[in-house]
Specification:
- The protein has 93 residues and is an all-alpha fold.
- Helices cover 60% and strands 0% of the residues.
- The two termini are 25 Å apart.
């Protein structure tokens, strides 16, 4: 998404660089919160992109596995209600 925005001229690479490191130092949370939403989204995407380059394996917390186990147990016990994609799209949230 970020690359599309950059290609379409919504934001330029120098703006992203300025957002990431104004005056050559990392931003404080108050500075980040003061940015327009569109720039915060770009910043967030930059952070996600930087994590993709990490070769270190990050372990999921134990509670992730517990949630997956609970959901599998519901499926196996036939207590889960499954929806098709179309049914999900038709639900009111």
């Amino acid at each position: 998404m970020r690359n599309d925005m950059l290609k379409n001229g919504a934001h330029t690479a120098p703006e992203v660089q300025r957002t990431l490191h104004p005056k050559g130092k990392p931003m404080m949370i108050t500075e980040i919160k003061s940015l327009p939403v569109s720039e915060r989204i770009i910043l967030m995407e930059e952070i996600w992109d930087s994590l993709c380059d990490e070769h270190e394996q990050v372990q999921s917390p134990l509670w992730h596995q517990e949630i997956l186990n609970d959901r599998l147990a519901l499926l196996n016990s036939k207590q889960a209600t499954l929806l098709s994609l179309q049914e999900l799209k038709n639900t009111n949230r």
